[in-house]
Specification:
By secondary structure, this protein is largely without helices or strands. It has strands at about 35-40, 40. It contains no helices and two strands. Strands 1-2 form a two-stranded antiparallel sheet. A hairpin with a 2-residue loop joins strand 1 and strand 2 (about 40). The chain is flat, with a radius of gyration of 17 Å.
């Protein structure tokens, strides 16, 4: 088994919801309904 080191984000903290940030992942989705609970697990 070979382990590979993960590359960490540089430059301190990031705001993934800020489109000008290098770590941008997109807009946070809006919650439109209550969460579902299936087999005691919140989905």
């Amino acid at each position: 088994m070979t382990l590979t080191a993960a590359t960490l984000a540089s430059g301190g903290t990031h705001d993934p919801s800020n489109s000008s940030d290098g770590e941008y992942v997109g807009a946070k989705p809006a919650v439109t309904a209550a969460p579902a609970v299936i087999d005691d697990v919140v989905q």
